[in-house]
């Protein structure tokens, strides 16, 4: 296509854009013209070419004016002029059908009532049908012209047209079709497992068969992308759709999830890449939040590490329950600024106190707690990267994760906070690394504090890896795929439990609501995920093959285990009213915890070997590793 031709299409689109502010009057004017043409076409159909003009009564022009006025009144009453023609679909046709039927009946009743019998009754009967055909055809023509112009402009810019095959033919797919086709997309077909939909057409796009039909080359045709439009499906159904789509070597996109649509965070016609939660091979855990509002509403809530992956989501979740004040303590200036900006947009009426603070600084923490007097404390500040903490930063991990937990817990107890919740990890169970051992020691510190301070409920919550959090495998794999590979996996058999960031935050809030002092709440994480399978799926979702993006096994890193556990052999489990939660009551070894804390607080920097030796005296499972 030549550049001058492309310029003409661009000028046409610019002209259409300039006319959009005048959409309503233009729509009425064009509809009036279509109604008048339909009146003449009806006479032509009824009387033939020889008599269609001469046989009309002398007052026909006045009748036509009244008929046009009736139709425009019906269109205005049903808000037809407000609709956007480039999105015209079945809903618009229904509205036009009702408007033409009502206007036709009213016109016929008035004409018959005035005894204007020279107007043929067949004209009065057929005119609504002719009018409906005319106003629908002009909208279809406009939409075709608009989409053709968009496709030509995209082609002139050197962009290949994007042709999508959509998995799903429900309400989400209908709304998707109404939105993306004007964005340069061409939808070649739909797939759905519902037999009633197969063979039908939705917004002019055929339903080609069940989801399994995507394997057939003839069904895929020349599609360049696959779009999964199943926001309300179960996790198992979404997982199956992802697996089917990812096996074909084409880029895979998805519409936002049902939760994103409900929250208003995204529109259904805005397709996006597959996110970590889309790969979660189980139903997200829906915890009972009935008592959470009672715990948080009207209270001062303090969150340490509130700018991190879990901490920032925890801030957003807490804010929904209308606390009196949210206090965020964060060591990273950038993270603190980021969460403050996010909260100011989402919850502008929420009082937020933003504080730079370090949990290793007991005097600083005491001053913050004394001034703010928090009633509920969530302790999310921690170092969590296993290999980084194993050798060169073992002392820093012990001071931050264990001593920092004690400082936060002590400051909470001194101001008689109602609840203190520690964010723990599955790596604290039978730990084989320094990071896990420091978190297990932190759990024991919390248990010991519970025995010593009855006025505050001390509890912990333990879960597996969080999909999409900083340092997790998903962002790392995305970066490696974007760079052309290879993807690095430590071991072909390594497995991990996974949950989403919102799930993790909800679990923490649930712990605050139902946990008793000295308990650790453990989420039933379902089936673990093999990391190499996750890597292969992400490669396929990017439209690549394992020949293009290689997987390289680098060997287990220092302190890393092939699998994680959620309960140690010595933990005593207690049932809860929430079936997805179990409780582990820990050994409240106050004396051992105090000795370790005293040593950490009074000693200069110690070697990794001495840190391991000190941890093994308190964390028995670590000592037997």
List the defining traits of the structure above.
nine-stranded mixed sheet, seven-stranded mixed sheet, alpha/beta, elongated, 22 helices, 625 residues
Structure description:
Helix 2 packs antiparallel against helix 3 and helix 8 (235-246) crosses helix 19 (531-541). The model has no long low-confidence stretch (mean pLDDT 79). 49% of the residues lie in helices and 14% in strands. The termini are far apart. A 9-stranded mixed beta sheet has the order 10-9-8-11-12-13-18-22-21, with helices on both faces. Strands 3-4-2-1-5-6-7 form a 7-stranded mixed beta sheet, with helices on both faces. A two-stranded parallel ribbon has the order 14-17. The protein is α/β, with parallel strands linked by helices and 625 residues long. It has 22 helices and 22 strands.
Which of globular, elongated, flat, extended, rod-shaped describes the shape?
Answer: elongated
Number of helices: 22
- Helix fraction, binned, reads 40-55%
Briefly note the structural class of the backbone: alpha/beta
Strand order of the largest sheet: 10-9-8-11-12-13-18-22-21
Q: What gyration radius follows from the Cα positions, in whole Å?
A: 33 Å
Task: Please tell me the overall pLDDT.
Answer: 79
Biggest sheet features: 9 strands, mixed
End-to-end gap: 70 Å
Which runs of at least 5 residues are low in confidence (pLDDT < 50)?
Answer: none
The number of E-state strands comes to: 22
Question: How much strand?
Answer: 5-15%
């Amino acid at each position: 296509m030549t550049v001058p031709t492309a310029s003409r299409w661009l000028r046409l689109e610019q002209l259409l854009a300039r006319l959009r502010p005048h959409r309503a009057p233009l729509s009425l004017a064009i509809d009036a013209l279509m109604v008048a043409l339909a009146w003449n076409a009806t006479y032509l159909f009824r009387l033939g070419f020889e008599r269609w003009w001469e046989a009309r009564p002398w007052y026909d022009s006045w009748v036509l004016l009244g008929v046009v006025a009736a139709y425009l009144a019906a269109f205005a009453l049903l808000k037809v002029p407000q609709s956007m023609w480039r999105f015209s679909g079945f809903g618009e046709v229904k509205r036009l059908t009702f408007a033409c039927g009502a206007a036709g009946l009213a016109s016929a009743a008035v004409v018959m009532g005035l005894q204007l019998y020279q107007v043929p009754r067949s004209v009065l009967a057929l005119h609504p049908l002719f009018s409906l055909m005319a106003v629908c055809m002009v909208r279809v023509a406009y939409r075709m012209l608009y989409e053709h112009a968009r496709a030509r402009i995209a082609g002139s810019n050197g962009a290949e047209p994007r042709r999508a095959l959509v998995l799903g033919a429900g309400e989400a797919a209908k709304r998707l079709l109404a939105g993306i086709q004007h964005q340069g997309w061409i939808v070649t077909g739909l797939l759905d497992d519902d037999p009633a939909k197969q063979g039908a057409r939705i917004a002019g796009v055929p339903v080609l068969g069940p989801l399994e039909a995507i394997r057939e080359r003839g069904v895929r045709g020349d599609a360049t992308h696959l779009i999964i439009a199943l926001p309300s499906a179960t996790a198992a159904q979404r997982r199956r759709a992802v697996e089917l789509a990812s096996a074909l070597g084409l880029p895979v996109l998805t519409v936002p999830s049902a939760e994103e649509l409900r929250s208003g965070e995204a529109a259904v016609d805005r397709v996006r890449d597959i996110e970590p939660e889309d790969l979660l091979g189980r139903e997200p855990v829906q915890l009972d939040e009935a008592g959470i509002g009672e715990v948080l509403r009207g209270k001062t809530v303090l969150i340490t590490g509130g700018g991190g992956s879990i901490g920032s989501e925890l801030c957003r979740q807490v804010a929904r329950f209308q606390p009196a004040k949210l206090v965020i303590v964060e060591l990273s200036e950038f993270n603190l600024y980021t969460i403050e900006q996010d909260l100011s947009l989402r919850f502008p009426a929420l009082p937020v106190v933003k504080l730079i603070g370090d949990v290793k600084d007991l005097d600083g923490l005491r001053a913050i707690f004394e001034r703010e007097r928090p009633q509920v404390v969530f302790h999310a500040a921690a170092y969590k990267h296993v290999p980084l903490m194993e050798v060169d930063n073992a002392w820093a991990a012990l001071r931050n994760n264990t001593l920092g937990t004690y400082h936060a817990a002590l400051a909470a107890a001194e101001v008689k906070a109602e609840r203190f919740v520690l964010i723990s990890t599955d790596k604290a169970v039978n730990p084989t690394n320094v990071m896990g051992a420091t978190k297990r020691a932190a759990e024991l510190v919390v248990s010991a504090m519970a025995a010593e301070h009855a006025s505050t409920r001390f509890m912990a919550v333990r879960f597996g890896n969080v999909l999409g959090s900083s340092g997790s495998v998903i962002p790392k794999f995305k970066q490696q795929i974007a760079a052309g590979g290879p993807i690095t996996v430590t071991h072909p058999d390594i497995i991990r439990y996974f949950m989403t960031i919102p799930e993790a935050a909800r679990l923490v809030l649930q712990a605050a609501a139902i946990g008793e002092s000295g308990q650790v709440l453990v989420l039933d994480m379902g089936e673990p995920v093999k990391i190499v399978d996750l890597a292969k799926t992400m490669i396929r979702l990017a439209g690549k093959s394992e020949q293009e993006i290689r997987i390289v096994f680098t060997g287990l890193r220092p302190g890393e285990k092939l699998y994680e556990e959620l309960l140690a052999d010595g933990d005593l489990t207690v049932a809860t009213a929430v079936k997805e939660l179990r409780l582990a009551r820990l050994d409240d070894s106050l004396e051992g915890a105090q000795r370790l804390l005293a040593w950490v607080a009074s000693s200069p920097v110690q070697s990794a070997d001495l840190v391991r030796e000190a941890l093994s005296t308190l964390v028995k499972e670590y000592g037997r590793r």
